[in-house]
Design a protein that fits this description.
Coagulation Factor XIII, Chain A, domain 1; five-stranded mixed β-sheet; about 40% helix
Length: about 575
Amino acid sequence: MCQRHLNLRVALVACLLFAVAPWAVQLARNLRPVALPATTALMLLGLLEAVHPRASRKDLAGLSTAQQNPSRSNLPGLAGATNDWGWPLASLGFALSAGNHLAAMYLAPVFVIALGLALFTRRLRINRITLLALLPVLILAGSYLWYDANNGWRNISGYLRMSGEPATVNDEALRFALWGSGGAHLSDFTGGAFLLWQAQAPLVFDWIDTLQIGLLLIGLVVCAIKLARTRRAVFFLLLLGFVLPVALQLRHARPLQMHYFTLLYPATFVLMALAASELSRFRVSGFKVKWLVSVLLVVVVGWQAFTTFRFYDFIERNDTSAGGYGLPVRNSLGVASVRAPDKIVVSTGGDPHVNEWATVFDVLLAGQPHRFTNANEGLILREQPAQYIFTPGTDEAYEQLMRYAQVTLTRTVPVRVGSRQNYVIVETQGVNLAQVQSAPAQPWQSGTQLLGYAVQQTDPLNLQTFVKVWRPAPAGADYHWYHHLYEGDVRIGQADVGGVDAANWREGDILLHWVRLPLPTDAANLSVRIGSYTYPQLQPVMLVDEAGDVVGDGVSLRVTSDE
């Protein structure tokens, strides 16, 4: 993009600064907006192709005349032809950005103003190619409206409510945009270890971050001057792509988030590279300023690379998770690299779409067979060899596995250097159900069957149930399990669990669920009735016989107790 519309020097410097900027590196690790700089660059490239004509040799020869007499030059400044394919490209970039993250809504005015620029300069040709640009936007808008309409217009109504809330006007958006150019205030990621970071950070070098911010500000000034002199659309769009999203966030009703400012990439680094390129042209008393600029760039790049590596070393050794950077994945990657035919990740939550531990291992185990179980709801037991990865906070599930599985290997890996939190890798060769009371029953329609149960006579009553999976559940199925406690014929307690998510069932699994049922004083003649129902429909799952006829909806189990 820079090489086509500016020059190769700007392109190379912009890429170098983008590659080492600590904030850019850290935000690229965030799963939500990780693709935003790429899709934003695609949109910017498309707009440049659409409204900024490519310079011919004749154009370049006459450019100095336009600079000397800008009143005779109109946007976009050059007489070459624009590229009609730029509109579909820009439209696709915007649609992908909006689909990737909500921050892209601040790009919509940039797109609209660029369209107005093309109309004003009569460079918008209506043909099949430009009409193709409508397709990504229509697909995006249609998908969004269809989803929101089927969910009670939750997103649009929420946005309207937020717009009506009391708002604050301050310079926070500008500060975030400037910080994002380098490593200033990276300490915000250190969370509870902030004071430790400050104690070891060589603050004497903070001027380097200030230098990079200054380079960005100079880039904005240079871009504005070039726009005034040449009227070239490339400078207009660069300014617009940086200034407008920042200006729109100066007034905000909710706290600003740093990752929203990834939509300013790559414009941020193009502006900085433009400043470096222009400064390199100056001479002061015969001295070529380009040598000083080169030295300063080396200092900035070296400092930022050092800051990034120092930060990674810091989070490996200190707990930054309290409001800062989450757990590093270096040790997680080592855990995930241990191959096994059947990997079961046991974590708090167990849903990769929502829960951090599950998300991390879903990414790290890509390409390997793996599944998840919520340690707060249940556990999968296998009669064949299996490997379990226990994340922190899953102690009870770990104890259940130790009790009911044939364990052949246990290995502990610290979450980070010096941490008390650990991953635990457990390998098993089968199950050990000697302590389980058999409870043969008819299978449920879901393809599951109760094998047995175990009871610990405590208060509350600890009950474990063991359910065999004979066939995988249908796609999208969700089953919950109820446990009704009876004294005689009177129900005196109940505990429901979601259990192991049906999407993680495999043929031959044994689903282990556990519940606690409070006991009344002097309770006697106790039994528990166990059954299943679909969720959220709350329809009972029936028991069936060999012929497929319904024979009931639950199984009653006798609970031994003192009378």
